[in-house]
Amino acid sequence: MTTLLDAQKYPAEEIASLYLHRWEIELRFRDIKTTMGMEMLRTQSPEMVRKELMMHMIAYNALRLLMLKSSTIHGCNHRRLSFKGALQVLASSAGGFVASRGKPASRRGARSDLMERIAERIVPERPGRNEPREVKRRPKSSRWLQTPRQEHSEHFRHGEHPRKILDEAA
Fold first, then answer.
1. d(CA 70, CA 116)
2. What are phi and psi of 122, to 5 degrees?
3. Digitized pLDDT (tens) for each residue of the chain, 170 residues in all
């Protein structure tokens, strides 16, 4: 649906193309958030949150550059390479790079193997694929901690137990 009704000013093909580009951006955000484990930030202060975000962006861009170089070497489309697959290959190859320290020929072999394995992880083209959005995080059976932890634990030290949901109904 759109409010851009002037077909001359807003051709349907251009709108469809923009939508596909937007979908690519959404997939990249998913790579950063879900695949790299950035759904929940671990830091609390604004300065540390900025640093954490910057480190994720650096790692993301470094891996994307590695995927681009791999696709250039092996003649495949870098947009079709699996980000998750590349991340797994990189993690599994770390030991080979450590073992090849001080051995240039061995390191070149490990790098060549890494590039080849990344290029093998091709995601097939799936036009018209429809993926409805759903929340993946499941509700937990326990309640959220809504008071400071120290205040919450005082109940246990004084013999008072936290009230349960069923207690409130009675």
1. 7
2. -100, 130
3. 667 778 888 888 888 888 888 888 888 888 888 888 888 888 889 999 999 999 999 999 999 999 999 999 999 988 889 999 999 999 998 888 777 788 888 888 888 999 999 999 988 877 766 666 666 666 666 677 777 777 777 766 666 555 655 555 55
Burial class (CB within 10 angstroms; exposed 0-12, middle 13-18, buried 19+) of 142: exposed
Q: DSSP string covering the chain, please?
A: --S---TTTS-HHHHHHHHHHHHHHHHHHHIIIIITT-SS----SHHHHHHHHHHHHHHHHHHHHHHHHHHHHHT--GGGB-HHHHHHHHHHHHHHHHHTTT-HHHHHHHHHHHHHHHHH-BPPP-TT--------PPPPSSPP--S-HHHHHHHHHTTPPPPPHHHHH-
> Residue 41 carries which side chain, given as an amino acid letter?
L
- Helices 46-74, 83-99: crossing angle, 10 deg rounding: 90
Amino acid at residue number 52: E
Q: Tell which residue, 116, 55, 69, 107, has the closest CA to residue 89.
A: 116
Domain boundaries, the chain: 12-124
